[in-house]
Design a protein that fits this description.
The complex is a heterodimer of chains A (420) and B (350).
Chain A lengths: L1 H28 L17 E7 L6 H9 L8 E8 L5 H11 L7 E3 L6 H8 L7 E6 L3 E2 L3 H6 L7 E10 L6 H23 L11 E4 H6 L10 H11 L3 E12 L5 H28 L5 H11 L4 H17 L6 H14 L3 H12 L12 H24 L25
Chain B lengths: L1 H18 L3 H9 L17 H10 L3 H9 L3 E5 L5 E5 L3 E3 L5 E2 L2 E4 L3 E3 L4 E2 L3 E3 L3 E2 L5 E7 L3 E3 L4 E8 L2 E4 L4 E2 L2 E4 L2 E5 L3 E13 L25 E4 L3 E3 L4 E3 L1 E4 L3 E3 L4 E3 L2 E3 L3 E3 L4 E2 L3 E3 L2 E4 L4 E2 L3 E3 L2 E4 L4 E2 L6 E10 L4 E14 L2
Parallel strand pairs in B: 2-5, 3-6, 4-7, 5-8, 6-9, 7-10, 8-10, 9-11, 10-12, 11-13, 12-14, 12-15, 13-16, 15-17, 16-17, 18-21, 19-22, 20-23, 21-24, 22-25, 23-26, 24-27, 25-28, 26-29, 27-30, 28-31, 29-32, 30-33, 31-33, 32-34, 33-34
Antiparallel strand pairs in B: 1-2, 17-34
The chains are: A alpha/beta (420), B mainly beta (350).
Chain lengths: 420, 350
């Protein structure tokens, strides 16, 4: 029994290993798809930009300022800061901008209701009068061309949502920020773009992102009962026949966590939300014959990403048990397991990161690659803990709680200025 | 003694070997050689940015250009960075003594160039410029109309404040823009072109209209169209009318005279018959062939090739748009408004 379980663990790790390598090799050697990048002239549609802001006094002014300067027809761009029950100066800061730009900014000050970003966005829909809407978290700083880049794919009637690339701004602050910078590079530059290249399932990430309103209505609107509205939306759109598009060159700066406890809370929330989506959609996705075979396979693997951490831990425990009980695990399986655990399995993700730094043309930061194991270990434990809590807490009658990511920014930031 | 030092030496050597791969990482943390945020795009992507920065670069020469033009003379000047510039204040046919011009050249008046000239530096034309056959320009900014004769090559960029007329065999290897219109003759090639009006003809002629640029349109009200998603290939018969956006998971074939009040997307090749009309965008993950005399109002995007047959119109003066594919082949007598962007090859066919 243990041996069979161990075999399944090894098989899963091997599948993810192959997936990582396929993505990385595609990114390095395959044909790259950027079908909408050249749309620079068009009858640009009216757009609403929603800024999700919950206690964001440290950062909200920067994003509003940046959005006021973007290169998009002013009369077609409405900025809606969604001030979600903030207890700090967020409302005051937003209102000071509204005073100056009453025709361009329509504030939504949410004073009650269910906590969480999805719930806030759901309430904010009353303020969205346009067919296309973009969503940013308040710590993001969009560049001048970003709005056009995110809107361009919506000329494709099959596109339901668009995702841009997130680039950490506070990279040089700490070891953690530098590790997260590498991780983001791998995730976007390789993972997301490879899925785009291969016509798989690029993920809507909830920020630096756009949604077609009629597509959102078709799938029933925002799901406020999830901790990862982005993953939830990706799969509901996929199953309704809408495409999510990734725009690798639609880059936007963000602030990554600077403290380990903040990072742990962030990744635990992501893991729980992602696992929720896995439970809700994995089975129904496999049955969707109108979704291509490849999309279904990639979708399932994407849904299972955060479940792999506890699976890996289980694998380690099983390996030890089997070894000390003298179980006949066989040489081949042992070698495969060893390879999967030490070089091919977990470390395939590091191969992705290495490839991403090369693609980014920023090669010196690759030196930090050995330390990404530290980030990996923390994530492994945190994600496994999140999965455990997800199983245990409902049994104890506890509800899942939304943890907002704390900001560390002090003072305004010059857009695009290197920090180090 | 040996028994004490041996394990210590072994431990130190092992520790050193284990630590060695970490040395670059530790050094990077201590010395921070690459700890800044990755650069992101800061410009607005406007094709005319090259021309604008070149005009700013030329600003210090305004006075010498005016003086040379007034005195009908040829002057030499230097830009603040020391770059030597030849200012030609004479108009008419200018007989440059060399076929290969190594310096930056400014033409202050309407000028006609001889054949076979190669300009190794950028050229600034304050008035109309008539190029000679087989001229080669590195970069060219014209404050008025530019006429490029047969066999001309533009290597880096070109911008005309007036109209740009490119005769047969003209090759615009990179970005090229006009504030008014671009006229291509058959046999020309291009890569990225922007103008309110782009016309292809067997023999290009300028347009003589009072105003080519349409006024700004007010924002359109949000009007979501119904969506139809077809599994497999889609065929719309001749003369059909379709209201809404249509998507096929396979290829699309639309016969002549069909009208779509919306956009069309094929996850395969898209083939349009003659006289079809699409009010929105036309997108394909493969190639697109647009039949003769068709009208497409929105962006036309294909991931491999777009073929536009004679007499078609893409975009409109009030709604300029983008045509983009690795390869674009356009027939004669086509009119497009906005951007043509062929990453690999764009060509005007006979």
């Amino acid at each position: 029994m243990l041996l069979q379980l161990f075999g399944i663990v090894i098989l899963l790790i091997c599948i993810y290993t192959v997936r990582h390598y396929c993505f990385t090799l595609n990114r390095i050697m395959g044909k790259q798809r950027h079908p909408y990048i050249d749309i620079d002239t068009a009858d640009w549609p009216a757009v609403t930009v929603l800024i999700a802001a919950h206690n964001e006094e440290a950062v909200v002014a920067d994003i509003i300022r940046a959005l006021l300067e973007v290169d998009y027809p002013k009369e077609r761009l409405t900025i809606v800061p969604v001030n979600d029950r903030s207890k700090d100066r967020t409302k005051e800061i937003i209102d000071s901008f509204v005073e100056k730009y009453p025709d361009r900014i329509i504030p939504f000050h949410r004073t009650g209701g269910k906590p969480g970003k999805a719930a806030a966005l759901k309430d904010a829909m009353a303020y969205v009068k346009t067919e296309i809407m973009l969503v940013f978290d308040a710590d993001y700083i969009p560049g001048k061309a970003l709005i056009r880049q995110l809107v361009a794919p919506f000329f494709d009637p099959e596109v339901g949502s668009v995702m841009g690339r997130v680039v950490p701004l506070n990279v040089g602050k700490k070891l953690l920020t530098r590790l997260l910078d590498l991780e983001r590079s791998g995730g976007y530059q390789v993972d997301q773009q490879a899925r785009m290249n291969l016509h798989f399932v690029p993920q809507y990430g909830g920020t630096v992102a756009g949604i077609r309103k009629c597509a959102l209505h078709e799938i029933g609107g925002w799901n406020e009962n999830t901790l990862a509205e982005d993953t939830d939306l990706t799969f509901r759109l996929l199953m309704a026949g809408w495409k999510t598009v990734y725009e690798n060159r639609a880059e936007c700066y963000e602030e990554v966590p600077e403290r380990w406890p903040v990072r742990v809370r962030q990744i635990m929330r992501w893991a729980k939300g992602h696992n929720q989506a896995m439970v809700h959609y994995a089975a129904s996705l496999t049955r969707r014959h109108d979704v291509s075979w490849w999309e279904r396979l990639d979708g399932l693997l994407l849904l299972g990403v955060y479940a792999m951490a506890p699976v890996l831990l289980l694998g380690w425990v099983l390996a030890l048990l089997l070894f000390y009980t003298g179980a006949p695990i066989g040489g081949g399986v042992a070698v495969l397991g060893l390879a999967a655990f030490t070089t091919l399995g977990n470390f395939a993700a590091f191969f992705e990161i290495a490839a991403a730094t090369r693609l980014d043309g920023s090669r010196l930061r690759i030196r930090l690659l050995p330390f990404t194991f530290l980030g990996f270990a923390v994530s492994l434990i945190s994600v496994s803990r999140a999965a455990w809590q997800q199983i245990i807490e409902p049994l104890m009658g506890k509800e899942m709680v939304w943890h907002k990511t704390e900001r560390s920014r002090i003072g305004p930031v010059a857009v695009g200025r290197p920090a180090a | 003694m040996i028994s004490v030092w041996a394990p210590l030496a072994l431990t130190a050597a092992t520790g050193g070997m284990l630590a060695l791969p970490l040395a670059p990482a530790v050094l990077e943390i201590l010395r921070r050689k690459d700890a800044g945020p990755l650069p992101t795009r800061k410009d607005d992507g406007d094709i005319r940015n090259f021309a604008r920065s070149f005009r700013r670069y030329m600003d210090p020469l305004r006075a010498p250009i005016a003086a040379a033009t007034q005195s009908n003379s040829i002057m030499e000047a230097r830009l603040p960075n020391g770059c030597y510039t030849l200012i030609v204040g004479e108009g008419g046919l200018y007989p440059l003594s060399e076929q290969r011009v190594e310096t930056m050249v400014v033409f202050g008046k309407e000028i006609s160039l001889l054949e076979q000239l190669t300009f190794m530096q950028d050229v600034y034309a304050a008035d109309v410029l008539y190029g000679g056959r087989n001229n080669v320009f590195r970069g060219l900014l014209g404050e008025s109309d530019i006429y490029l004769a047969e066999g001309t090559h533009v290597l880096r960029w070109l911008h005309a404040e007036g109209q740009l007329i490119v005769q047969r065999g003209g090759h615009l290897h990179t970005r090229c823009s006009s504030e008014k219109a671009v006229h291509f003759s058959a046999g020309c090639s291009f890569q990225r072109v922007f103008a309110p009006l782009i016309v292809t003809a067997s023999q290009a002629q300028p347009t003589f209209t009072a105003e080519i640029i349409a006024p700004e349109k007010p924002a359109k009200a949000a009007r979501p169209l119904p969506r139809s998603r077809v599994h497999g290939n889609l065929h719309l018969g001749a003369g059909e009318i379709f209201l809404g956006n249509i998507i096929a998971t396979g290829s699309i074939r639309i016969d002549q005279g069909t009208r779509i009040f919306g956009s069309a997307k094929g996850n395969g090749d898209v083939l349009l018959g003659a006289n079809t009309r699409i009010d929105g965008s036309l997108i394909s993950t493969g190639s697109i062939r647009i039949g003769p005399n068709s009208i497409i109002k929105g962006p036309v995007l294909a991931e491999s090739e777009i073929i536009i047959e004679p007499g078609s119109r893409i975009g409109s003066p009030s709604s300029p748009t983008t045509i983009s594919a690795p390869r674009i082949l356009i027939g004669c007598d086509c009119v497009t408004h906005g951007t043509l962007w062929a990453r690999v090859e764009g060509r005007v066919e006979e």
